[in-house]
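If I may wish for something, please walk me through the protein I am sending here so I can picture the backbone:
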Amino acid sequence: MRSRQLIMPRAALAFTLGAALAVTAVALPAQAAMVAPATSHSAASAVPKLTNLSHLDFLLDDVPLLAGVPGHTTYRAAEEPTARAPWVYADRQSDGTFHRVGGGPVTDPARGWYAQGAYDADDISRAAVVYLRDWKQNGTASSRTTAYELLRSLTYLQTADGPNAGNVVLWQQHDGTLNPSAIPKELPDPSDSAESFWLARTVWALGEGYAGFRSADPAFASFLGQRMDLAVSALQRQSLAQYPQTQVANGVTVPGWLIVGSAGATAEAVLGLSAYSGAKPSDQAARTALAHYAEGIAKLQSGGVGQWPFGALLPEANSPTFWHAWAGMQPAALTAAARVLGDSGLQKAATTDVAQFTAQLLATGGPDNGWTPTPADRTQIAYGVDSRLESLIAASDATGAAGLAALAGAQAAWYFGANRAGAPAYDPATGVCVDGIAADGTINHNCGAESVIHTQLSMLALDAHPAIARAATSLTRTTATDGLKVVEAESGTTTGPVTTVTPPSAWTGSANWSGGAYLQADAGSTVTLTLPAGHPAARILPIADLGPGGAGTTSWTTSVGRFTLPLGRTDNVRAGAQGIAPSPVFLLPQTLPVPVPAQATTVTATVSGTARLDAVLVQPVVSHLGLAGTTSLDVYVNATKLPVPHKIDATGPVTATSYDSAGRQVGRAQTVGAHGFVLVLPGGFTTVSPR
């Protein structure tokens, strides 16, 4: 497999992982379910419209389509020599206005050139989808026109002939000049020399564009179909040529045919291929590409109930221990593919992710930029929020699972104040959003293209689902997040041969040493860790490096009064090749079979052999998310395969609704009295709301 950089979302650059995630940052994007979600006609339709494209309109500018550039032309280029594209960044000024800027420092003031450029294919493609969806959903004539211009701009960036035909140049200057080799260097370099995230997003925009214009403008749709053929041909000679070969990452078998080895990138292509195949079912090449890519995404599902990462569809083939919210459209993509292909297995994989993993994610604080495998980068951006929201809504529409709609409302509340800042991240009156919220609640008040695009995709989905929109806008603050917590191994009390090791970097290439250090513990040593104060009954997930150098096992116990309770044992090493993983370090959480009771204050590890102990994840048997505003919502999430009765803190009668591990309601909603008990089903969740 060709080596590649880890690509980060542009909005996240203001909140980089720093020392925790020392990776090279490159622009990245992604988004939403392929076909606009079905509109609900419930009484909740009175919710005010949330979509407002004013700020995205402000970012748009005319871009010359330069003639005579080898391999680059577009639809009606001679007749219409300009198109439209969004500036990549918008810096907020002291007076509240915004200034449009390009990527990187200005390198040629006279020509207005940037080290990267003013526009890029990532944002052009996703902006096109916003306007396509607004046109389809709301009949906005101006959005049709803008979508047409953006798709013309995007296809100009696609290389039309030669050895790189079908691939895409990422960056373009304000005067229309292409910049195939940006500074800092991005892979691939030149940017159209191989497949890329931006090729995947081009496929996504071409697919929705073809479906949108097929009847309204057949000639333009035919052109888009030709460019889709060009893109699929490029993928056929690159990643699809590897199908059905597999690879190994830290001993885990993974698909070898994902676009740039990423399920996140591949999911965006699948969204486009689903739309295209739905509109043009006779295209067997596109349908085959869709089936193969969807299969690959589903193969990265990992864990399960109580087992990290709790049923999530992992984003990177080369890391079994890394999940990120950005580029997280895999469940939406599989839902779209399942519909087109008639494959219920794809829908099951998508539903597992959103019903089990996402419920746990929300109870832990929401869509963080990085779990590696502990929640390491807790910055949150619209890109990640939208990925979760679009996936929940798509799966809810496809399955009719009411619990997924309830979770969608809880996730969408992030935009309206239920976030770590406790402040709105979006203003429907202006269409302005924020570029992100840091772990400490600091807001980045800039509003660049990536952020506003994903925010508006979320708002379009909410406008199409008034009941979810009503719930989201009614929940404006977070009252509780009692989910995963981390206890660092080096915080413990030790006996025997134990040393603290601080690696030069916490980042291994595919995971983080939590807290930047670990314990090297040899045979006969013990490590006693203090559990978080006031913890409920909880599952314990120790994290040790399972790569070469470890040996034997570690036994875990806890004490309750005078009694010692065995919790189970974990491996200190796992057989398996490093393969395509960037590092032999393999920090996979292992779940102990016996939970610790609420009365326990410590856990003790006794090492047989050699262990590199990093941390312990503490997962409540029942996690809790609390939201409030003009109404309230509490979500209780079961981390076990048994039904759990759970006492709630309500001060008056409430309505409790139980959902199974697929988000389907089980039984009727029940009235529960003050300080009563609710039943949380195995691997499922229960919502509690006012009567």
Notes: Residues 1-6, 14-45 have pLDDT under 50 and may be disordered. The CA atoms of residues 372 and 511 lie 5 Å apart. The chain is about 30% helix and 25% strand.
